Structures are given as C-alpha cells and as structure tokens.
Amino acid sequence: MKKYILISWAILIFTSACNDDLLDTEPETSIPESIAFSTPAKILAQTNNLYKQLQNQSFYGGRFIVFNEQRADQFGQNDGNAATGSAVWNQNVASTNDFVNNVWAVGYAAINASNILISKMNETTVISKEQAKNYIAEAKFVRAFCYFSLIQTYAKPYNQDKNSLGLPLRLTPVTTSGNNDLARSSVEMVYTQILKDLDEAETDLPVSYTTPLLNTSRAKKCTAIALKTRVLLVQNNFERVIAESKKIVSPTLPFQYTEGTLTQKLETNYTAIFGGNYTGTEAVFSIPFANSTTETPSAQYSLAYNYLAQPIIFLAAAGIVSDPAFNSGTDARSALIGTSAANQKVLKKFSVTTAPFRDYVPVIRYAEILLNYAEAAAHINDLETSKALLKAVRNRADPGYVFPENEMATKEALITTIQKERDIELLGEGFRLMDLQRKVQTLPAKKGSIGTAPLVLPTSSNYIWPIPSGEISTNHLMVPNP
Amino acid sequence: MLLEKHLKLTLCFLFLLTAQLYAQQQNLKGKIVDAKDNIPLIGATVQSETEETITNEDGEFVLQNQKLPFTVKINYIGYAAQEIVIRSFDILKVKLLKDSNQLDEVLISSGYLSQKKTEFSGSVSTISAKQLQNRPSTSFDQLLGGQGTGIDVIQSTSVLNNTPVIRVRGLNTITSGLFPLIVVDGVAVFTGSLGGFVGNNPLSAINPNDIASVDVLKDASASAIYGSRAANGVMVITTKKGKKGKTRFNYNSWFSRSTPYNLPKLLNAEDYTMIKNEALVNAGKAPGFFLSKNADGSTVNTNWYDVAYEPGYSSNHNINISGANETTQYYFSLDYTNQNSFIKNNTFQNYMTRLNISHELNKFIRAGVNLSYSNAKNAGPNTGAVAGNTLSSSTYNTEYITNEPLGRMTYVLPPNVPVYNPDGSYSIQNGISVGYGANIPSIIGTINAYNLAMVQELDLTTSISKSLLGNVYAEFDIAKKVTFRTSFGLNTIGLENKLFLNPIHGGGASYNGVATNIATDLSRTDWANTISYKNSFNENHNFMILAGYERIKTTLESWGASQSNVTDTYYKNYQGSYANISPIGNDLSENALISYFTNLNYNYKNKYFLTLNYRIDGLSALSEGNKYGNFGGGSVSWNLMEESFFNGSKLKGFLNNLKLRASYGIVGNSEIGNYPAIGTYSSSTYGGAPTLGYSQTANPDLKWETSSKLDLGLNFAMLNNRISVEFDYYNNKIRDLILKTPQALSAGIPNNYINENVGGMYNTGYEIGINALAVTTGNFNWNVNLNLSTLKNKVTSLASDVFVPSVFGVQNMTRVGYSIGSVFAVPNKGVNPENGQMIFINSQGKEVQYNHIGSPKWTYLDGNAAPAIDNYKDGVIQGPSLPKLFGGFNNTFSYKNFVLAVNLTFAQGNKLYNGTRATNSDQRYFNNGEFIKNRWTTPGQITDVQKLYYGDNVSAGFSFSSTSKVEDGSFVKLKNISLGYTVPLEASFLKNTFSSVYVYLQGNNLYTFTKYRGSDPEVSINGNSINSGKDQNVPPNAQVYTLGLNIGF
C-alpha cells in the first residue's frame, strides 16, 4: 500500500511540475521592443534618447571634440599612450583604431535611433500629430548633425571634392540583420540630405521649450537654423549663410534672436558661458550632464581632464595662445588660460577636474553664429556688417579693444581676422580642424612633449580618417579611403 | 639390546626425517597493505598452485601447506596484481600499488547514473582523487592539466584563484559560453570569473580533497544526456563517501612558498638613462633622463619587480572523517586555506566544509544529502591579468594596457626614479605620475605610470563569495528492479565585490577617491527526477533504461554603487563619507531549462554494447516556437575478448582487454545569455530627463546552436593489465553557431551585433592515453602515464571576420578557413640595415618602412611616401592560437617507503603574440628589455632592434601587431616533482596513535623548455576566450615549493 502511495506521489510531482510558465521569462531591467513606444512618456524618453546618443563620451560628450583638436594645430600632446589619442595627434590612425571605429559607430547609432523614431512617429496614435511632428523634427536635426559630423571626419572636404565618396546614407530604420551592404553616397549628396533634414526640422521644431535646460539641451527652431549657418559655411555657400543668419541675428546691436520667451544673444560675461548653470542666453545647443557619473564621461573622455586636469594636451606655444588677446589681461578670454605644473599653457574653459566631469559641452554658441555670419558677409563684400559682427564678439570679451585698421581694411584681411577671432573665441571647442579643412589648408606640423607631429597635406591619405575596419569587414559595398 | 638400540636410533632418525619432510610443507603467513598509506587490504586474494585464501580484517592471511619454492599470486580489486616467488617461510609483507589501469572496477558517472567502465561505450577521461591530492591549488580545475586526454588546462596568470582556461577538445563556440559544464553530485555549478580584477573562480568552493573522481565526458554518447549544455564537454564530479569499516580520520596539510618564475630582464638605471637619452637625441631633442641620488649618495636604481613581488607563503589544513555501517555512510570535512601570492597583497582565504550522508531507511528507500559551504575571500591589486567578470562567455581583456595594472607598471616604470622620498613618503609627481627623480618633465613628456608601491598598497580589489552547493536525494525501489530517484540540487553564491582607489595617486586621483561595492546573488536550483529499470534476461541480455525530467532555474541579482569624491582622506571603504554616488552593476535576470531525457544501455553477454541517449531541452532564452531542442546520441562497442574465437588464441594470453567503440550524437550550447532573442530598449537619463534607447536587436528566429560529435575509439590492455591503452579519434562539427554577428557599424544596431545562427566550425583530432606499470618488483615500482591529444580547429562559415579593433592593434582574428582566434600580425621584414628603420610588408606586397620623426613617416624603400600600415588591411594570419598537440607525461616511482612523482605537461604548434616584449621595446619613457641594447646604431648593422626614436610606439609591434613579436608557443614544462615518504609506524612509538603518516616535498612549475622569449608560454591576458595566445603586461607565473603532511588515524 505504502508503495502505491509513493508511486502516485511521484506521478503527481511529475505532472504538476510540467505545466507552468518557467520558460516564459521577460527582462526586468529593460523594456521589450513591443511596448517601447506605447505611452507618451516612453516616446518622450525615446526622443530624449536621440540626444543621449550625442552625449556619448566618444562623441559630443567629450572625446570627438578632443580628437578634432588633436588633429588640428593648437594643441601639443603630453601623453604618448595610444589610449590618450597620441596616434590621433600624430596623424597616424589606422582603420583598426578603436576611436576611428567608435566615432563612426556612435554617429550611426544616433542616426538609426533617429530613423527608428521618425518611422514610429509617422504611424503613432499614442500622441497628437502635432507632437509627433515636433519629435520627427528633433530626429531630423540629430540625424543631420550626425551626418555633418561624420562627413567631415571620414570624407574629403566639400570644397576639396564634393563628388568624392561620402557616407553610406541610411535614412530608414535598421532593426534586423541583412542590412550590412550599402555603398557610399557622394559628399554632395550627403550635404544635400543634411540641409534637407535641417530645413524640415526648422519648419516643425518648437520655438522654445519650458525651461532654460530644455532650451539648451534639445533642438528648437533656431538650433536648426544655427546649424545650417555652419553647414553652409563649410560649403562656401555664403549667400545662404547670410540668409539663414538673418533669421536669428537682429540687424542692429545688440545682435540677438528673440521669439516668444526665448532670447539668444552673447553673454555679457564670457566666463559665465562655461560655468554657473551653463544655460544662459549664449548657449544655443549644449550637451548637459546630470551631476552623476551615469551621464558624465570617464576621465580620459572628458574635456576638463584632457585640457586641464592631466593635461593630456596643452596649448602649443606657437599656436593661437601666443596671440595678444590671450596675453593682454584686458581680454576676458585670457582668464581661461592657465599654466600647468610643467609650465605649459592650458585651457581652463572646462574646469570641473574631479569626476563627475559635468561641465556642459557647448556645441552651438551664439558667438559662432555671429562669426559664421561675419565671414559670409565679408566674402560677399558686405564688410560693414561683417566688421560689426566681429567687433561684437571681440568687444564682449575686451570692451575697449579696437581692431587695427589693416586687419579690417580689405575683404581678405577681414576674413583672416575673423578666422583668428574664431580660433581665439572657440579655442578647444573643436572648430579649428573644420576651419582648416573647409579652406582645404594643410594641417600644420606641431610640437608636443612626445615629439613633433608632421604636417599633413590635403592630398595626403591621413588628411581625413580611414573608414573603420568594423565597416570594411562587414559592408561589402564599402570602398575604403585611399 | 643392541638391536633395540639401533632400532631406536633408526626410529629416531626416521622420525627426524619425517619431521624434516613435514617441515618442508609449511604455512606461509603474511600481510597485504596499500603501498602508499600502509592501510591493510581486507579481502585480497592470495593464491598459490594448491591453495587460495583471502586476507582478514587486518590484511593478514595464512596460506597452508606450501612447499618451497612456490609462487603466490596476489589480487585485489583496484590494485595491480603481483606474483611473488617465495623462497622462505618468513612472514611475507606485500605492498600493493593502486592501479589506475584496472578498467573493470572503475565506475563512470554520467551524473544521472554510474556504470562500470567496461560497460561504458562513450569517450571519457577519468581523473581520480589520487591525481588531485597533495597538490596545492586554489581550485581543483587548476590541477587537471596533463591528467587526461582531450583536456587542455592553462594557468594563464598567477593571480590567486584566477579562473584557469579549461578546454575539452578545443573551442566549440565563438560567442556563446566556453566553459565545460561542471556537475557536482548532480548539480550544475556556476563557472567563470566573479571577482572583477582580482579573479575569484567559483570552482574554489569545491574542495579538491573532497573529490572522489572527475569524469570528463568528451563525446556525444557520454555527454548527450546533458543535451543542450554539453557542447563544451561535461565534467562530472563525484564527492567522497564513507566506506565500511572503522571510522577514518585524515588530516592533510601543506605549507608552500611561491616566487615569480622567469621575469623578463630589464635595463638598470644606468643603461636606461643611456638608451632613453640616445632615443631623445635621435629624435632631435636634448637628453632628458638623468640618474638621481639617494640620501646616502648612492645612485637610485629601482627594481620595480622587488616593489611588486616578494615570496608568498601559504598553508592549508584539511580534516576529514568518514565511515559507514550497514545502513549509513558519512563523510565530513573541514578545510582552511590561507594563501599569499608572490604579488604583494594578493591573498586568498577560504573556509570550507562538506557533509555527505546517505542512509538506507529500509529495503526500498534510500536517502541522502551532499552539502558543502565555502566562504572565500580574494583580495589583491589590479594586475591587468584578469579581464573582469564573466560568467561563461569569451572575454576580451582591455584592462592590461590601462594605467592601473601592476603587471604593466613593473615593465614600464623607469628604474632611475626612487620609490620613496628621503622622508619616507611615496615619491610622486602628481595624481598620475610617479616622481620624476632627476628626469626633466618638459623634455620627456608625461610619465603616465603611477608609483607602484603606493597604488599596490592603497588600491585594493576584494571579492568575497559565500557559496552553498549540494543536493538532497531519495531513491525508492518502487517495484522489483525499478527505482525512482528524486534529487534537488542548489548552488547559491553570495558575492560581494569591492574596489577602493585612493584619492591621492593613481586611478582614483581624478575622482578624489572612489569606493565601489557591488553585491550579487547567484542562484541555481536543479530538480531532477529519474526512473530506472535494470534487468537481465537469460543472463545474456542486460539492459538498463532511464527516463527523467529535470528543471533548472538560474537567477542573477546584483546591485551596487560607486562613491567618489571622498570627504576626508581617512576613509578607505565604501561606507565612508563621499560627495558623489552613482549606481553601478545593477542587474536582474533569470533563465530556465526544462528537460525530458531518456537513456538506454544494453549489452549482450558483455560482448556487444549499445547506448542511446535522447534529451529534449526547453530554454527560456529562446523565443516562442524555438525554445525546445532535440539532442541525443548513441554508441556501440564491442568487447572482442569475450568472443569465442579468441579463446585458445595466443592473443588471449597476451591481451587482457580489447574493445572497439563508436559514438555519434548531437548536443547544444545553452550559455547564450538570458534574453538573446528579443529586442529591448534600455532606460537612462539625459540632463536628468528619462531616456529610452535601443539596446538589443531582436532575432525571433534564433534557434539552438548544435554540435555533432563523432568519436571512434579503441581500448586495450595487455601483459596482465600492466599496459593499458585508450585511443580516440574525434570530430566535432558545430552548426548554426549562435554568433554575435558583427553588423556594419553604419547600420547603427546596438553594440553592432545581432545574435544569429550563422557560423560553423569543427574540431578534430586524435587522443591517446597510455598507462603502464613499467616496473613492478617487491620494492620498486614505476608507473607511467602518457596522455596526448591533437587538435585541429577550423572555422567553416561566418558572416564576416570576428575581431576587436583597438588602438593597441589586432592580435587575434577569427576568419573563415582558419583556426578560431588565430594569431594575426602585419608581416615584418626586420630592420633596414641602411637606416635602422623597421620594414613591413603591406597588403600590396610592397615593403614600407617607418621613421617616427619622418615627414612622411611611412615611405617605400626608395623614400617615396607610402600609405600607413593598417593592421586590418595589411595583417596576415600567422597560425593557430590553440596548440596542435598537447598532453601530459606522468611518472610515479615508488621504492620501499618512498614515492617520487614527476609530471610534465607539453603543448606544441601554437603561436603566441609576445606583447610584453613589445611593451619592453617601446620608446617612450618605458623601461626596456636588456635586448634593446642590440639596437641599430650604424649603417650596415644587422640587428632585429630598430634605431631608437623617443616616442616611437609603432616600430616594435605595440600600436599594431607585427610579426616581429609572433613566436612559437611550443613547450615542455616540468610541472611538478614530488617526493613523498611513508613513515614506517610498526616500529615507532606512533604505532598506536596513527594508522598512516605520509610526508612530501614538492616543486611546481620548475622549468620550462621552450623557444618562447617571454616569461611563460602559458601566460595569456584574455583568460577563457577565443582570443588566446596574447601575452602582454601579465605578471609571470609562480614557482612553488611545498612541504606537505598526511596523517591517518
């Protein structure tokens, strides 16, 4: 009898154990794809995520800006370790360099995130059509911004050869395999797409958001216009630079843009741009950081660590730091130059040198718009407008300064002066390389404490970065840079 | 009268004569004991031509009415038989040697059931307790190398309790789990590395002293019962049980001393200063390196090895008590180990206990419990040798090259700077640089190396694990010959990982101090129910059927935080006060496996054997419709010795055993992550606002990765079982490999991969294991074991190359047509004798040379500008990173009370990337190897070291992989020599106290015969990974001397 009880008990266990949902597990710390766009809050979070992609430490969170400065001529390299980008500074990166792979990958991850959002918003019923259009416009801004960053890094400058190979132009979402192969579009086609996206973004973006932080950290109408002035300047399309600039720069002093509650203009106090709440009137678009290492870059990726704490790169003595503006004492910008323990000049714009490295990264400042406008105006011989804009930027930092006549006398002199002002004003913000390359100029040789980096001719293969190995090995239609 | 007298004398004589005759037929008395521990052997058979007897409880016997001279045969199960010619009736003492060749009685456990080896058709390597005992280690897996065919174990670093690389018949996957399944008393245990940069192998919770045997199931027949978990082989561990007889106490202990073995020779301060200044001058700069003076006027000449390393002393104590009566068996053990590596501050402590009890409740019901608990603490500096946490899959170490690790610091730190200031404080320049001494910072640039002494002392990684492992089971004989068994197993690990970085100097400086604590709970429950039926018909048809159901659930829960910006330098732990805190290491995941399996074993007259296995596994990780997979295998074997045509054959007297085996089956790999098939979005914040971003691409079609394994084998034993040979051919084909398939970066897919079934590869090879009792005489015995395995791995299909791009080059490449993770490098043609520049050959076949200060830097030999060398485009596969042949050669000599064991391991045919030599060739402030003195200095000079330019990190294979650093990894290692002595107790005062006393002296890693120029051809930075064979900046391996003691009561 006992035996039969046991047997039936065993059978009972067997059968009861088999009928449960042990195998139906779901992740508890991430959200399944099926419901990722199911509520207004999730969609807003998806939109915020586009900027999160830009915030990546390899991209505008810090390192991409440092790479651009390492490739240009204003900084000398202190640290010979490849992990600190010594090969970048030495103009000697290979396709297998992880920085070369990372910047490309992060840019395209943002592009795919934008493409996914655009596609989802075209069919969403969770939020209003109006709201969906806003989000699509933000996605187009991010997509354009990424393509613009990548085309300048991995393709020949537009002004050098707009018919040369540009980037694979991905405009639809990728959520499955089998999408590896895509050929490069021409440089011109990529620029056309960038401007198309920005034009469409301008139409549908809101004028402003509810808080200064949101105005600074998300794209609004004037952000798209501002970026267009940069893109068009790189194309030497001066007429359109002026046309776009006029939308957001008042014709008379003080140069500013006001719409609704939003005002964008130069900060009176230059140093205020790089501190405080980082969301003043000059910040058109910045990468913000919450005060926690969940968002902030790690040490080697942050601007403050590279420029100041370590410093991994210092201001090359022969570079713009030798300009009187940085040595006069009357120019507020000289206050952001310091001297390191090794007696090197260093940049102090980003001053939070202990982790979390939470200095906001300025991406578009009102001063840049004025200088873009000034340069375009000079090119079309509107020297008065140009001078006025230039002076506005200079005199904000050094109110008493008067430009020598010969520096503004001719169109050429004025353009040279504007470039110098850009170098001074935007030092360390990642513009110098773009300025050299849009003018198809040689990247000059430069001295660091790890040696001398050679000059790079526009015809040299290392004038631009190689297409990354991770793309070449998987995309069979990809043609590497020569 | 006289006659009478004569008669008497005659009678007397006759009597004496008879007595004499009687005296010639006497009884032989004797005693049979174990040769090793002198324990009496009860029930041994003693046989002469006329008589046969067995030994009693004290191992004694009497063989009656024997006539000199005569021969006795002594047989005892599990021991080598002995034949002794007896020439006197003195009391005979015979020592029998345990015989690993005795196939008959070796039991093979598949975890679900045990079988005699003779009835087992699969391919298995069995490692006995004897092969594991008295060998200092932190975990048993470290001891398996060279102990059986098909098992390749590599001790890739000397960090205590670091997880060794274990491979059973090569690498069987690319991105899924690489560890073999390890099953202890029926419970699949956690494997991997759990303690961050300090290692922490969960297998250290299994006390080697408690292991009765390790059965490594290599082919599909043996392992198919494990279905989807068997692709990497299965190790079935059976722990010790009590044996009938009186209670046994054993005490084992050892003390050891470890030192670094074969450190690369580096420059002293004077040579360093000379070499570095030469490089500066060559680069057009002024000399910047100068010797500095100590307070006593002597020149500073710091040997950073001495800062990092000092002899480490370790000890281990183990007690076990075991016994059994008619109904109950018990085994209880306690173990404490306290180990110190030669790496200062690298320590390992472990408290372990085990209790195994089994009990017969009545004739029908048996029940038992096997339970062990371990509390282990691993601590140490970050050495760079451990990649970080990994539960099972392939690792890629990026840590070795960062600033923090100790290994790198010993190689790069300048010898001409002091460790301490005259006031005794650490000599530091700032938060990240060691004090410059007399070197001039503005000329030499940043020394991005910390003061090793300071960070090694203050920055510690700690990993504490509390592991519970065991099962409870019950067996019911529910009918005649039908047994139902239910077993509930549990493995939980409570883990606490801590990292503290000081705020003053090192990796913590830019954070003003960081303290990170992460707590993790790992838990696995395993409930297995089987029903078995065993019967024989007509004594010819013997079979056993097993059917079972099993459910396994694994959960992982972890949480943690990182505090930074310490409010006062007083705090050195997480619980102190800090200004910032961020979450880190949060995870919550689970997976489950539900299985139904059956097994049939059949043999006909012990002549023909058949085994069939079938298992259905359902895995939660796969998507609906693909969850269940079918696995199975079968084998046949043929015991030729039982054939009648062998009877009377001459072979019969020569061969003791001859068996042919063949097996085939399909198994899978379930270590594919918890949610590989679904698409997910992950949350974070941007400027404090919530974000939701694409984090994994779905692949609803993801299905099981399967391996088909073919094995053909032959076993034979000959010369009275003195020589036994096991031979196997195997071929494992892996199809539908679940691969993290690289996607075009421009697709913008999360992490740039999608889990897909796209790859294929195979492993094939031969294995031969030979055991021989080369010499057996009364006093001297020599046992030889040779095991040898070959391996050929080839990747047959992939979507695209699998590799990791890096600013430090690509050293491993997985590419179709080649062995997985092959060593990869750009061809180097040596130094151009004309100008001292390194010449490389690019993908066009053109020679290009590199001048670090040139403009352009890369030129053809005619001086025209050349495109820079590109590691991926110009790199060429140099050879496999897996050895083509490996194994062990183990000798045991015993003479009277002495036992000498000499064990060698060897490997042949693999390539290594000697990245440490690249580090030691680097022309930044890095210290260099002595070999750098052969640098090129004058035109026409033939050398392999280029002209030195300060800052050059390209020429010597540091920034990209160069064939100048690719070397042959073949070696023969004198792994272990041990000399033991069994103290004779009979004559001593200890006689009544102890039953056996054994002492031994042992040396480990004594010498390596190799052409490899690095410190050790087994060193590897990637641990258990497809990216093997890369040696860079890893601390050397240890040489260990041990004194040990075993006492039996």
Automatic annotation (TrEMBL), chain A:
Any one cellular-component term (Gene Ontology): cell outer membrane
Signal sequence segment: 1-19
InterPro entries tied to this protein: SusD-like_N, SusD_RagB_dom, TPR-like_helical_dom_sf
Main location: membrane
Domain (SusD-like N-terminal) ranges: 22-233
CDD domains, alphabetized: SusD
Family to which the UniProt record says this protein belongs: Belongs to the SusD family.
Stated name of the protein: RagB/SusD family nutrient uptake outer membrane protein
Organism field: Flavobacterium cheongpyeongense
From TrEMBL, chain B:
Cellular compartment(s): Cell outer membrane
Domain of life: Bacteria
TonB-dependent receptor plug domain mapped to chain residues: 117-234
Pfam family name, one: CarbopepD_reg_2
Membrane topology of the entry: Multi-pass membrane protein
Subcellular location, principal: membrane
Signal peptide as annotated in the record: 1-23
GO cellular component, one term: cell outer membrane
Alphabetical UniProt keywords: Cell outer membrane, Membrane, Signal, Transmembrane, Transmembrane beta strand, Transport
Protein name, entry field: SusC/RagA family TonB-linked outer membrane protein
